[in-house]
From TrEMBL:
GO terms for molecular function: catalytic activity. Coiled coil: none annotated. Residues 7-219 form the AB hydrolase-1 domain. Pfam families: Abhydrolase_6. This is AB hydrolase-1 domain-containing protein. It comes from Streptomyces inusitatus.
Amino acid sequence: MADKPAVVLVHGFWGGAAHWGKVILELRNRGYGSLYAVENPLTSLAEDAERTRKMVNQVDGPVVLVGHSYGGAVITEAGDLPNVVGLVYVAAFAPDAGESPGGISQELPPAAFENLAPDSDGYLWIKQDKFHWSFGQDLSDDEALVMAVTQKAPLASTFGDNITAPAWKKKPVWYQVSTDDRMIHPDNERKMAARMSPRKTIELAASHASLASHPRDISDLIDEAAAEAG
């Protein structure tokens, strides 16, 4: 276990660290003894990136930083730390400097865009009765219900926060595209992946929640990144 890098997992909008549960178990079974999952506040890109940096700074040794969904924007902003040896994007945003997740989504809106609902406090939710269809149509009814009820809504303003200096321009990258994604348009994922010149891109016939519906495939990609970069 000692010769494997640490893996730090970063969740996205409408989720928390527990969304990585199946991947965590899979990686542990593959001998990863240093696993961390950041719990971001989803209040601004700056605050989420700082929370992630603090987690990475607690790790003594190399780190593979993995981001799902908006977590990809977070690792793009926070991944320039010296001990980060690789970035893995899981159905994730990978904005360039001056770009935001919201701006990218507006260019090519995803299928579930209309199922987002703001509340009176400025948070943006996925409508509970639309969550299964929107976020994880390849999950069981029970699993999707739990995700829907426990979803962690971001401040809507976070969608418009721009990347300053993208770490993917300095670090090796791996990317997973979900071909049936309804939260980020699959063609947007392909576009973001291609311009980063990743070491490897995989496409899965998966929903946005590929980390939960395809944990072995996601762990394979993380494993490969750890072997090459770590």
